[in-house]
Write a structure and sequence with these properties.
Distance between the termini: 17 Å
Strand order of the largest sheet: 3-4-5-6
Number of strands: 6
Structural class: alpha+beta
Low-confidence stretches: none
Order of helices and strands: HHEEHHHEEEEH
Number of helices: 6
Oligomer: single chain
Strand content: 15-25%
């Protein structure tokens, strides 16, 4: 039920920015060196993870080189998500997080799409706070599916291309921890059928 309520909030959010997501009580807003990682399904567990400057630089990776265009920046973001999940997984025990929703498993080391969307949004915000996102703005997460349309609910983090205005899904939920996230135009992602309640 908590996941459904969270998805309803996402669906009603419109064009709110990422800061509004955290101000509404979803996880805790990141700082320039700390991310509050959601796990255990729908932010049931929130664990602070602090990074020193060298670790922030490691996560940023190719973003520190100021990619020449938005497409290159998104590729660097994908790598940053993978590095972030590798580091976080080793620290808090979520390295075994499997793709999708894992019914019947001990949940503390697993993440649903609300956890993933919140964590990726927090990471993207940390990167922006440290000056590593110049071609995109971090947006409030987006959702698709609501049972009545024949689809399971599902959420994703979102970046907005500051030049074209196009929004992009950065969705780490469909793949295992530290694997490349799904990166695709949000309008394409919105047409998908996979959702947070699928096994």
């Amino acid at each position: 039920m908590r996941a459904v309520l969270a998805l309803l909030l996402i669906l009603s959010a419109g064009g709110a920015n990422a800061a509004d997501w955290f101000s509404q009580g979803h996880g805790r807003a990141p700082t320039k060196d700390t991310v509050y990682v959601c796990h255990g399904y729908t932010c049931r567990i929130v664990t602070p993870v602090r990074f020193d400057p060298a670790e922030v630089a490691r996560i940023a990776g190719k973003l520190a080189d100021k990619p020449p265009d938005a497409a290159a920046e998104r590729e660097a973001v994908s790598l940053a998500v993978q590095t972030f999940e590798t580091m976080v997984g080793a620290r808090i025990g979520t390295e075994a997080d499997l793709p999708g929703m894992q019914f019947g498993r001990g949940a503390d080391d697993q993440m649903d799409c609300i956890d993933e969307a919140t964590n990726t949004t927090a990471l993207l915000t940390l990167l922006a706070e440290n000056g590593h996102l110049t071609r995109h703005r971090v947006e409030w997460p987006s959702a698709r599916g609501f049972f009545f349309d024949g689809r399971y609910p599902h959420a994703t983090a979102v970046l907005k291309d500051v030049e074209t205005g196009e929004k992009w899904a950065i969705d780490s939920w469909p793949r295992a921890n530290a694997k490349p996230p799904v990166v695709e135009p949000l309008k394409v992602w919105k047409r998908g059928r996979g959702g947070a309640l699928e096994s």
